[in-house]
Amino acid sequence: MFFRRKPKNRCFDREQVLDVKVRSDELRHRRLRAGLLTLAFAFSVAVLVFVGSRGLEWALSELVFTNEAFAVQVIDVQTDGVIAADQLRRWTGIKPGDNLLALDLRRIKRDLELSPLVQSAAVERVLPHTLRVRVIEREPIARVQMLQPRAHGSGLEAVTYYLDETGFVMFPLGRERHGGPPFLLADELPVLTGIGLGEVPPGRVVEAPRIHAALR
User: Fold this and answer.
1) Using one digit for the tens of pLDDT, what is the confidence trace for 18-67?
2) Bond into 190 cis (ω within 30)
């Protein structure tokens, strides 16, 4: 009877619950407002990036890649071998008037080096109108003569393959057949004999050690 508990103040409890609820609602509203502001900011940034990229594409197209001020007027070709400059120009696939800045230099280099006559090629832009091409040709040091089935029709035909010092096999050459000039003084090159047709794969390096030994 001496430790009788005092009755709770129910009104105070209700006020405390209401205060907690108000604070919780206010915190929820703040979080919602912050989330909406974040979304609005992200959307604005996305719109600005999209508009900026479109504007940049337009500017590059109008001011650079279609600008006649950068049209190719000169294709400066030099080679250390016998391939005609006009032939090398055709292999680049570039025509006067093409936009110099829009050219794919790696594609031009690759196309040039696809020719069995070309060992390596370097391509560069010289603003505002010049494409510069430098070519190092393969130099044949020997030839292989053999018979192989005709590409069209029946029977056999005589063909000549040329090999450089690395053993790379160059296709039969002839202006009338492959659009490229024959090698100068090709008839004076030594002939390797006793080689089978499968040992000289055109466009690849021979694997037979005895052929490499003969080339050395």
Assistant:
1) 555 656 767 777 777 777 778 777 777 776 676 656 655 555 455 555 67
2) no
Contact in structure between 164 and 117 (CB atoms under 8 Å):
no
Claim: this prediction has a pTM higher than 0.85? no
DSSP per-residue string spanning the chain: -TTPPPPP-HHHHHHHHHHHHHHHHHHHHHHHHHHHHHHHHHHHHHHHHHHHHHHHHHHHIIIIIT-GGGB--EEEEEESSS--HHHHHHHHT--TTSBSTT--HHHHHHHHHTSTTEEEEEEEEETTTEEEEEEEE----EEEEEEEE-SSSSSEEEEEEEE-TT-BEEPP--HHHHSSPPPTTGGGS-EE-S--GGGS-TTSB---HHHHHHH-
Q: Per residue, what are the HEC states of 56-81? A: HHHHHHHHHHCCHHHECCEEEEEECC
- Residues for the chain: how many in total? 216
